[in-house]
Specification:
Chain B: InterPro entries: CHR_Transporter (IPR052518), Chromate_transpt (IPR003370). The complex is a heterodimer of chains A (176) and B (190). Chain A has 176 residues and is mainly α. Chain A folds into two domains: 2-100, no CATH class; 105-174, no CATH class. Helix content of chain A is 86%, strand content 0%. In chain A, helix 3 (41-53) packs across helix 4 (58-100). Chain B contains eight helices and no strands. The chains are: A mainly alpha (176), B mainly alpha (190). At the A-B interface, helix 1, helix 2, helix 3, helix 4 and helix 5 of A face helix 1, helix 2, helix 3, helix 4 and helix 5 of B.
Chain lengths: 176, 190
């Protein structure tokens, strides 16, 4: 029975959470804190704070941890599955249809029309990251890190993984 | 086997290095799937992001799951999902069980702060890729015009991106084909 509740608690935020992981946080809180009372508001914000300081997608970290708290390892798996599977299946079906008609002019146009939207979404996201960095560590640090990482990735073709690791080391020593 | 290993490593990196939530990992997935392993073209990746954005749920598991499925079938899908999700969930459980609060460690905050501009650069690079692709198909003038309108709709009128994407998808499907005769001929040949 508890597994069914866990499933519902993470299925609903997964389906309604438009705009990716961060958008579903309040929905998860509603289920976990208000409806099922598995955690208090304080506990939830503690979990969220730690989740935010770890890498990886936030929604699955919340699902995995809270599922584990409530229902052990099985609870954890149920929660992640409920959170991830519905939209993934939908995605595979829809993209399957799209790929099948890849050469039809309609689908080609579809790809074309969507590109500027993606560009705007990505561009705005880039701007938000720079501006949050500006208010966090200031203009000069932001510019230096941005320019150095751009040079490494674009000119010297260093894999982003190494650039990020280098940034971790730099930040751990100089921005703490 | 090699393929499944590649998928696992690729999405393990994405899961472990994607600080700042799902959207921050999009450029990492792009680097792995398009640049490094060449599993797909930038155009196809754009379609996946568009559809992923128009569907609910976390973006990164949709990307990992779909890319895994497309390249390595059901096994690839499960493999990629596990790689992108599991390590950080385990880390989270271990940390929350052992330490009461990691927030006090200043160096963790410093590490996260230093990664933010790097992600900004990666997002900017991807933006550029999509812009130049868009202008190849639509021409610079139309592209800039569309950018302006889309920006207005999204950020001045605060319309949800999913609505904009779905509207454009419908427009593309409903619009009549100009070269339908030509297309028919191409179809016969192929």
């Amino acid at each position: 029975m508890i597994y069914w509740q866990i499933f519902l608690a993470f299925f609903i935020p997964g389906i309604l959470g438009y705009g990716g992981g961060p958008a579903s946080i309040p929905l998860v809180e509603h289920e976990v804190v208000d409806r099922y009372k598995w955690l208090t508001v304080e506990e939830f914000s503690e979990v969220l704070a730690i989740g935010n300081s770890l890498p990886g997608p936030i929604a699955t970290k919340l699902a995995g941890f809270i599922g584990y708290e409530v229902g052990g390892v099985v609870g954890s798996i149920v929660a992640i599955f409920a959170n991830v599977a519905p939209s993934l299946i939908l995605m595979i079906v829809l993209l399957g249809i799209l790929l099948k008609y890849k050469n039809s002019p309609k689908v080609k146009r579809l790809t074309l029309y969507v590109r500027p939207v993606i560009a705007v979404l990505l561009g705005v996201m880039a701007f938000e990251f720079f501006s949050s960095s500006y208010s966090g560590i200031g203009l000069w640090q932001t510019i230096i890190i941005a320019v150095v990482s751009w040079l490494l990735m674009e000119k010297f073709k260093v894999h982003p993984a190494f650039v990020i690791l280098a940034a971790f080391v730099y930040g751990g020593f100089f921005l703490a | 086997m090699k393929l499944q290993w590649d998928l696992f490593v690729a999405f393990l990196r994405v899961g472990l290095l994607g600080y700042g939530g799902g959207p921050a990992s999009i450029p990492l997935v792009y680097k792995e799937a398009v640049d490094r392993y060449k599993w797909m073209e930038a155009e196809e990746f754009g379609d996946i992001i568009a559809l992923g954005n128009a569907l609910p749920g976390p973006i990164i598991t949709k990307l990992a799951g779909y890319v895994g499925y497309r390249v390595g079938g059901i096994l690839g899908m499960i493999n990629s999902l596990i790689a992108s999700v599991l390590p950080t969930v385990i880390l989270m459980i271990v940390l929350l069980k052992s330490l009461s609060s990691i927030k006090q460690f200043d160096w963790v905050g410093g590490m996260v702060a230093a990664v933010i501009p790097v992600v900004g650069v990666m997002l900017a690079q991807m933006t550029w890729t999509f812009l130049s692709n868009a202008s190849k198909g639509l021409g610079w003038l139309v592209t800039i015009f569309m950018l302006g309108i889309i920006f207005f709709i999204l950020h001045i009128f605060s319309v949800h991106p999913a609505i904009v994407i779905v509207t454009l998808l419908i427009m593309a499907l409903v619009q009549k084909d100009k070269q339908s005769v030509q297309k028919k001929n191409e179809g016969k040949v192929s």
